[in-house]
Each structure stands twice: as C-alpha cells, then as structure tokens.
Amino acid sequence: MKKVLLFLAIGLCAVQLSHAQSSEKLGGFGLRGGANFFNFGGSDVSENDYSNRVGFHVGGYTMLFMTDRLALEPGVYYSVKGTQNDDFADSRAILNYVDVPVLFRFYPTDGINIFAGPQISFLAGSKFEGDFFGNTISYDSDAIKETDIGLVLGLGYNLPKGFNVQASYDYGFTPIFKDSDADVYNRGFKLSAGYTF
C-alpha cells in the first residue's frame, strides 16, 4: 500500500508540474467518476462461468492541448474492478486499483472526442467473496500482481459549462495472477461523467 501511495503522489506531482510549465496550453484540471463493468478476459476464462461485476472509479485529470484538436490527458483514479462468478455461492473477485492513464484526445468537432492511451494500474487491495447459507465469506488475497498494464480506448463528448461524459474500454495486457501461467486479464467498460474547471 505504501508503494501505491508513493506512485500516486508522484503522479499528482507530475500533473502539477505539467500545469506549472504549460499553463498557456492548459485545457483545465478536472474531476471524473462513474461506473465500472469489469470481467476477467483471456483464453483461460470461460465466458459461461463469469459475468461483469459493477464497480466504480473516481479521480482527477489535467488537459494539456498540444494543438487545437489534440490534447494530452494524464490522470489518477481509484478504480474497483473484478468479476462475478455465476456459481452456487455467487463468488466474486473485488480488485481495487489506482489507475494512472495517459490519454491522447482527438477532437474532430468542438464537442466529440476520440481517445486512447496506455494505463498502468497499482493494486491497492484484493479480496474474494462468496455467499454461503445466508452469510458472506470474505478473505484478502495476495494472489494478484501489484501492477497491471493496459490500453484505454474511448469516445467522449463535451457538454456546456465544463461538463463532459464518456464511455471507454480498458484492455489489460498483463496476466493478473502471480506465480501462474493462467491467461487471465482485467477487461471492462467504464461510463463516466466529469467536470473541467
């Protein structure tokens, strides 16, 4: 957890440094949050056994315009991912991360934007739960890797007065389990609303 907090602090310092050095190109600082719909993906995951688990994300970002139509957007978010297993116990994995995406946004019009970029995620906590005879059994797990690397793709729209909405997909590249050859990755959709100051 200390390592996660250190990376979070470094990320926030980098955002503030970019703000100070590029104020003439700054599009603004903003806050964003919304719903996650995540599942495990990969060749070792049976689509019949797992379904999307609903979580959330919340955090902040900085917009740095490189041209009138192209912007760089670093951000830091707390994000709850995982999966739901459709078994007798409704077992589920709850994976908490600090996501640090660096997105490139292209604006073909003043409102619509298309974005993509790399993301590194730092594990803040992980646990597995199941319901047995009316009771929820939960235990923390150290089986999940501490970092996850992926790609973010999405479509956004800028509303009046600084508000924005977007839909995105996180495509994890790093197998999530330690000491395992299992081909299992974090994959999921995010629906977000934000405000740029």
UniProtKB/TrEMBL annotation:
Signal peptide: 1-20
UniProtKB keywords: Signal
InterPro entries: Beta-barrel_OMP (IPR027385)
Domain Outer membrane protein beta-barrel: 6-197
The name this protein goes by in its record: Outer membrane protein with beta-barrel domain
Annotated source species: Algoriphagus chordae
